[in-house]
Amino acid sequence: MNLVIDIGNTRIKSALFAGNTLYAFKIVDSFEQLLADTEFINKANHAIIGSVVEGLDSFIERLHQKMPTIIFKSSTKIPLANLYQSVATLGSDRLSAAIASYYLHPNSNVLTIDAGTCIKYNFTNNLNEYLGGAISPGIRMRFKSLQHFTSKLPLVEPDWSYSDVIGRNTKNSILSGVLNGSVAEVDGIIDSYKLLYPDILVLLTGGDSEFLAKRLKNSIFAHQNLVLNGLNDILNFNLE
Q: What is the pLDDT of residues 53-82, one digit of tens each?
């Protein structure tokens, strides 16, 4: 059994995999909470950690005492050719999601979109080469930035059912701009990739993927746990 841990900017996601099958999944608020759940983590024989934050030394050391643990970083062996020009600054979540998409659709042009704290676009070509993509603010980040960087605009909570183009008050104008703008951005980037690669497949994952999947005009395949699946694929690849 593999223990897979994805440490993002806002939450810690963990999962147990039996081979390639997701056996159990949970979200925790802290490293202490995860380490305290011995019934969960003691089922695993090996672990992998992917993280986009710093300050993990103590947690890594304590987990490594329980089982062999791989820290996914730029030097970790992967099944793709990584042609990204600044490999050391490539987020583990971006590459993990792309690797999961590669295992689902090898030898294909695939755009993987991870809609979480940031919206991350990751492209792998039909030669099984990771080229890169794009990063833009996530939906909640857009709401927060409008309030943070202005003196009068309020912080508006997402209303996922809102779809009007014309906001007739300030709250609805923000909802229209952020929600419709995010959808338009994603659709527009997909369209740009289609011009370059007409046969491209688009996979969507992340916390805001359900909202986007309902609104996008382009055809996509939604997968909730691509990052975790990709980390598990990387762990299995290194254990072979």
A: 887 888 888 998 999 999 998 889 999 999
Maximum alpha-carbon separation in the chain: 59
* pLDDT for residue 182 is more than 90: yes
Task: Output the CA torsion 159→224→24→4 (10° steps).
Answer: -110
**Per-residue tokens: 175:** 């909802």
Neighbour tally for 198: CB within 10 Å: 8
Cα dihedral 100, 101, 103, 104 sign: positive
Q: How far apart are CA 109 and CA 21, in angstroms?
A: 25
Closest CA to 92 of 185, 4, 200: 4
CA distance 67 to 215: 43
Tell me, what's the pLDDT at 110?
98
- Say which of 93, 114, 208, 233 is annotated catalytic: 93
Q: Is residue 15 scored above 90 in pLDDT?
A: yes
Are the CB atoms for 87 and 44 separated by under 8 Å?
A: no
Q: What is the DSSP letter of 154?
A: P
Residues β-bridged to residue 15:
4, 25
Helix (H) or strand (E) holding 226: helix 226-239
pLDDT at 240 over 80: yes
Respond yes or no: is residue 93 known to be catalytic. Answer: yes
- Helix, strand or coil, per DSSP, at residue 69: strand
Res 8 pLDDT > 90: no
